[in-house]
């Protein structure tokens, strides 16, 4: 593979393929491949490279590129700085459209996703943007300052990338300037990196919900995969073990009435399903900023109401089934009551767990379900076996 | 609220808020609001409107708008036709850049997301595209035909919107032409509708996985929510009931050894977690078109390998715990063996269920987990209680 295509190939392949390719390249080849990449692209690769190779790459760059690369490397994943690139075209606000057009003709071709020129004053402070589609339809003699949009969506490099993505969606942006704290244009964000970010984040979330890491795909080795998936299984085994001890505490009751062992998974299961519905809805609302102190109370009352309606309905159905199955009306009553109570527990846990995770600065979309299942299983077993012990034995 | 803003408001609010707003408007108000919307925007609203109001809106449009609206209404959600709009700017390939620029100056402003002009022959057949950023830097005397990109990504209106979204990502597009089967330009797709589509789909999938409908949000009523969530709970109750009957078949064994009731949820639970990991990974690979007949066999062997590694590890750990807890080495052995077997079942189910859903034309991301949990619960109970009955009693 020729080194001028190596860089692009490394950028496009999946994480596990990239690891394999990099393992086959020596430092010099990697540095050579990096020569054909922009600073923001090198920064995307950097986490997968040994530190000394990154250092070699930095030293191989010219002064301007080096400054951009160091800037791009300094921002963590999930920040605007990690999405931005440096292909900015800016013009001064005191020139005519004719001059702006003549300036543009000096480029062979404008950078991809240039839908607007960033308009700056003599100190590079952002004054506004001039959409190309407006420049194209304007009289060449008009001054740029009279055409620009001054209400510009711009970002600081350490802003949250998710908020930038939401701004791109809300305002239908194609590109937006990134400015320093004193308002100078330093880079830009374009819709293609935003779309990649939205997709990657979505994928990472879906994988993380099942305890998988982004790096694993169907091409990873058995050993690597087993290692990746182990911690999640271990965590779930711990919670299952605690729930098992709840059942263990009622072994005396189960010996007397083995039907309890057959029915208890139903009570625990419905709690898990209903709680998951509540928490999924809440996680979405949190992501959309729909949850405030004023409607949290209303939400609480609403989810409680739903659990009562569903609990009465499905509790009665399963209660009657249990009664008929075991010809034991008291068992049916305990079943119905336990399902109602566990659905209420599930609704509360489905609200409380994501809110608590958000409060402690963690992503409520990831990991909520482990805690939720833990609560609904343990409490489901406890409520059902406890009621049975009190009323049936 | 003034009618010229009504339309935009209806487009921007959430589904359940829109329902409330529409319920307060009479037909004439809705028709008036629609006057300020483009055909593609009206088509987005149409599913929420009564049929006769849609008919009134169609009749209120002029001939060209009416044709566009009927075209937009005829494509189902999830197709390119549902994403496209009609703000196409096309030019002939036999004119000079000077003529093209003069044509553009006749617009007050070009439509949003116009990053390229669609270049057509005299019969409106697509010949290529001319990026604005190239037009801007070109000599005005050059003929358009010499500047255009002839390798153009274009879509048929009934193509899959997800495939269009992947093309937008892969080729970093901002806009792309939609053509009829005979190659005429009829509309365009822009990155903003693609981004909305990706987000909406992601949200709909996350909600559907928990048995929620897109229409429900935290502002829906208790009754509406309970009704939405009921069918999912009922489906899960049915599968839980079947699993419960598996346990019921072993009630005699549980009466003799109540420890089985305490340990069985662990065996079922680890199967559910591991199977979910396998199916999540496979669903992602299916979405990325990474799964082919040739690597399906390798994937099968790999997942089987992981289940053996994890089964030996965690089966031993939990087997020893069960042995120590109940001072019963045979019980520990049964526990370990059951966990290994159920992890193998889980790996197979985690591969088979999404593949079967894909084969039958259903979205494997949605609903796989219900079937998977059903298999891992029922088989987990059956394997563990069956082995215990054979070897311990």
What does this structure look like?
The structure is a homodimer of 393-residue chains. By secondary structure, the first copy, chain A, is mainly alpha-helical. Chain A folds into 3 domains: 3-74, no CATH class; 90-191, Roll (CBS-domain); 222-392, SLC41 divalent cation transporters, integral membrane domain (Tetracycline Repressor, domain 2, Orthogonal Bundle), CATH 1.10.357.20. Chain A has helices spanning 3-12, 15-23, 27-34, 39-45, 51-60, 63-73, 80-83, 97-105, 132-137, 161-170, 191-209, 222-248, 251-256, 259-287, 293-326, 329-359, 368-392, and strands spanning 90-92, 116-120, 126-131, 175-179, 185-190. Chain A has a 3-stranded mixed sheet with strand order 1-2-3. Chain A has a two-stranded antiparallel sheet with strand order 4-5. In chain A, a hairpin with a 5-residue loop joins strand 4 (175-179) and strand 5 (185-190). The longest helix of chain A is centred in the last third of the chain and has 34 residues, at 293-326. The model of chain A has no long low-confidence stretch (mean pLDDT 89). At the A-B interface, helix 8, helix 9, helix 11, helix 12 and helix 13 of A face helix 9, helix 11, helix 12, helix 13 and helix 14 of B.
Low-confidence stretches of chain A: none
Order of helices and strands of chain A: HHHHHHHEHEEHHEEHHHHHHH
CATH superfamily of the largest domain in chain A: SLC41 divalent cation transporters, integral membrane domain
Corresponding CATH architecture of the largest domain in chain A = Orthogonal Bundle
Relative strand content of chain A = 5-15%
CATH C-level name of the largest domain in chain A: Mainly Alpha
What's the number of domains of chain A?
Answer: 3
Structural class of chain A: mainly alpha
Mean pLDDT of chain A: 89
Q: Estimate percent helicity of chain A.
A: 55-70%
Give the terminus-to-terminus CA distance of chain A. Answer: 76 Å
Identify the overall geometry of chain A. elongated
Count of DSSP-assigned helices of chain A: 17
Sheet with the most strands, sense and barrel status of chain A: 3 strands, mixed
